[in-house]
Every structure is written in C-alpha cells, then in structure tokens.
Design a protein that fits this description.
11 helices; 294 residues
Length: 294
C-alpha cells in the first residue's frame, strides 16, 4: 500500500529534510545530570543556606548563650568533635528503623494480598489494623518494653507498629484498584488467582505500595526514636534519642542539636532514597513518573 501524498511525513523524515533536530531529542545534560534537575537541587539548597546564615546572625547579634541556642557553626563543630559517639548511636537508630521497615514491608504486603483474595478476611481484620495505627505509640511503648525482655527487639516492635499501617492500607487500596474491565477479561480467559494477582493486581498496586513505602520510611525512624526516648537505654549501645536526653541533662545543648540534625538528615536521606527507588520502578510505564512530551 502506498502512502497518500496528502498524508504528513513522519517526524524523522521531516527532521532529515529540513536539517532540524528531532522533536524528541534528548535533554541537555550538565555535569552528568539533566538541566531541569539542577533547579530542583539548587533552590532548596539556597533556601537552607540562607536560613542557616540568618540563624547564625541572630545568635551572634543577640549574643545568645550556647546553652540556650547554639549557632549552626557550633553545632557543626560539635558534630565533628563528637562524631565517634554520635555516629555509633546513629547506626543503632538506623539499623532499628530499617529492620522495622523491612518487617513492615513483608507483613504489610502479605496481609494486603490476603485481603485482596478474600473480602471477608479484609472486613474481619482491617479494623484491627486501624486500631493499631491510631493507638499512640508513646502510650503502648512502655508496655512493650516491659513485656519484651530484649530492649532492641522491643524498639523494633515499636518502630514496626508505626511503619506497618501505611504499607498495608496503600497496598490494599492498590490491589483493589485494578481495572474492573481487565478483571473481567482475565476471568473470561479463565486466568487463575495467581495469574490475576501477578499480571494485573500487583502491577496496579505498585505505585500505591511505593507511596506507602515513602511514608513508612520516615515513620519507622520516628517510631524508633520515640521508643528510644521511652526506653531510656544508656551505654554504648544506645541510639540518638538517648544522646539527646543525655545532652539535655548535662546542658550540652550543641550536642543535642547535633543529634537532632543527624536524625533530620537521616529522615531526608531515607525519603530521597525511597523516592529514587520509586522513580526507577515507575519511570518507564506509570503516568506519575513518565516525563510528558509536551
């Protein structure tokens, strides 16, 4: 079949004829990153630097004592000098948070799949997951620490409780959000439950799961820190929360701010890593991550 003389030529032919670049040319890169990425990195960094400079200026201008409000330069110096102690505590807090997040992923996804297979199971057990979520962890953490002999295990359970529900609820919503027309098509072709789950429900639930994972990543860190505050464990095997309490008792406020800063940076790094993971998984097929062409 010959092409109609009135039909528009393909874009590649038009580009070759008039010598222009292809319409969908690759974006220009600067230092290995796309040019559009740099404003997203530099603008928050600039705002943060301005805020830190203003903080330092207020402290110096008003001559605020360091035991009331230390400046960011003193906090950075304290972090450098006390790095040996603070880094060990940071590793303990992060290890508990990541372990709790892994357990939350396994338990949350497994239960969500079970709920998707049986509506009666979901109706029977999902309300208890809600009750577990709305119960303040500060209220039940002392009981968990009393009931569990191993303090580290108790901290992990507390962090898991906080991180569990977003993954369960988001994944359950995603599994139930599969296109009903496609579900009918799978039933028409007599697909098994496993085939429907693997090829339809799980891909549909992936964006929901990743969104819940980003939420739970930060919550697991919060749960670990709150549980450490309640437990009040000391010694070389204590996390950053105890270092904050210890610094407050000793009026070493710069060290307290250094520990707080490390917790905040850790939460940001966890969120950025999980966001990048979500981008890698969704960038080629999901509308939320595919770059628009116009």
């Amino acid at each position: 079949m010959t092409a109609s003389p009135l039909a528009p030529a393909p874009l590649s032919q038009v580009a070759e004829q008039d010598g222009t670049a292809p319409v969908f040319a690759q974006e220009r890169r600067v230092l290995g990153l796309p040019a559009s990425t740099w404003p997203k990195l530099l603008m928050p960094l600039a705002v943060g630097l301005v805020a830190l400079a203003a903080w330092e200026a207020v402290v110096r201008y008003n001559e605020i004592p360091h035991y009331i409000l230390p400046g960011p330069l003193l906090v950075a110096k304290t972090m450098w000098t006390d790095w040996g102690t603070l880094s060990g505590s940071l590793w303990i807090t992060l290890s508990i948070s990541m372990a709790a997040l892994c357990v939350a992923v396994v338990a949350g996804v497994s239960l969500a799949v079970l709920f998707a297979q049986s509506k009666w199971v979901e109706l029977s057990f999902f309300p208890y997951a809600v009750i577990l979520q709305v119960t303040p962890i500060v209220a039940i953490a002392p009981l968990i620490i009393i009931w569990v002999d191993d303090v580290r295990l108790a901290l992990l359970i507390c962090a898991w409780i906080v991180a569990f529900f977003p993954i369960l609820s988001n994944t359950t919503l995603g599994l139930n959000s599969a296109d009903h027309n496609l579900l009918n098509l799978f039933q028409l072709y007599k697909a098994t439950r496993f085939q429907t789950l693997r090829y339809l429900r799980l891909p549909a639930a992936t964006p929901y799961f990743l969104a819940g994972l980003k939420i739970s990543g930060g919550l697991s860190l919060i749960g670990a820190v709150v549980a450490e505050f309640v437990a009040g464990t000391g010694g070389s095997q204590s996390g950053l929360a105890y270092r904050i309490l210890e610094s407050g008792y000793q009026l070493r406020i710069p060290r307290m701010f250094a520990a707080l800063f490390m917790i905040s940076i850790s939460g940001i790094v966890i969120f950025l890593c999980l966001s990048y993971l979500s981008h890698l998984v969704l960038r080629r097929w999901h509308e939320s991550a595919v770059k628009r062409e116009n």
